[in-house]
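Review box. Two proteins, two foldings.
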Amino acid sequence: MVETHDIVRPPAELSAALAAVGSATASGELSRMGIRSAFIRGPVSVTPGVRVAGPALTLQFLPKREDLYPVDEYEEPEKQLHRHVMYHAQPGDMIVVDARGDMGSGVFGEMMLTYFKGRGGLGVVVDGCLRDTAEAKQLGLGLWIRGATPNFHVQTDIVPAAVNVPVACGGTLVEPGDIVVADDDGAVVVPVKLAPALVAHAREHAEWEEFSRLRLSEGGDLRRYYPLSDEARPEYERWRAEQDRA
């Protein structure tokens, strides 16, 4: 019998706050906090307009060796670990897959993703491919992938090897339970211990950007308003006080 570990999930409200922040702001704030690049390179959104954030269930693939792993798609299904990462799914979860950038194997298809959606999953980030992509896009999940293929998951060169272990997705370390923020700009990994500070910094950043955006739309000086200069800060503070009174 195959046994895999579940993850420790952060509070749902923390993930919701990060979803409101978005990937670009999360990446910028993490850089200022010392995480140089938390961006998962390679997978791109194929579900435009979807913005989500949730804890990462992780799946690791390794190179295939036929004497160690069955070739058939349905042979001994309970030994196929891409199913087991799905078994852990809870509402609000993301799945992050280190598929080694392989462009020949479809990690999940419509049926598996339908199950994940039914369990309350939000999205998947795959450093590789999916199959049944036309149908998958209709499920309401967020999908960040390198591409599409008609092949099933073990048809070519890789096999699922571990669930809920640290993985390298798109060259970025993802620990099980890290919060993944994903939207049209891509997917960013937020360490849970840094998430509360990131949210606080991001809210402050968003406030002055709202003010600066307004002034720039009125023809204001870019040097004065973006980034917010010391000379413009008293003006910003007055504007913010007015918003609080409104």
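Next protein.
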Amino acid sequence: MRALPLILLLAVLPLVADEHPAPAAAKAKAQPKVVTAPQAPAEASVDAGPSTPKAALAELSAGNARFVAGKRVRTLDTGQDAAMRAALVKGQAPFAVVITCSDSRVPDALLFDQEAGRLFTIREAGNAPDLQGLASAEYAVEHLGSKVIVVMGHTSCGAVKAVREANGKPLPGNLWALQAGMAGLLESTPQDPNEDAKAHLAHLEEANARRQAQALLDRSPLLRDLVTAAKVTIVPALYNLASGKVQFLKAVAAAAAAPAHH
């Protein structure tokens, strides 16, 4: 009978040992912990952009196609905003100048899908640049290296409509400046007897974009020289508010020099 407690004790000992297993670290040699230095975030770099007028225009066209399709890329990523601002503090090199209307419905950066630093924008009602606007365009191409100037009108333009409806009568306040900026527009694009007011306005909007683009060449020897040398292209365009599409019109050309007479 005395052997029975001894037998029970021997049976319980393995169970107690299982409840308190030896640590695995005691069985294997401890490995040293590797500490790595924290990685610094990558700095954002400013995209140099297209290097030729043709490539610059193609980039604007591609960006607008993304906007129309609802597939913007360059203006959707906000994760790099802080790094982009830091990079642009060092300087700018916009590949395109956009002269467009002050209308709030014409967000040029979005409709061309271009982030900060890539477009040099000049906004004036009726996309009719005054002397300051002209100087700004000259600065962009001469000092910042812009390759293309887009003079972009748009559908349902209130400035063009105001000039049309005034029909030569002075507009109130400083709005006379709109008429001065579009001088000759009504005379160059008279209303056809077969078109209504809306159709005539559409013709005026397109004609105004063409005339303002040509006026840049007529008023600026600097721009004329760059266009003649094929270093810059000036393109009139028309933005459709409803579709979001930009229609690029034929680039304006500098007048050929008159032949010398002997």
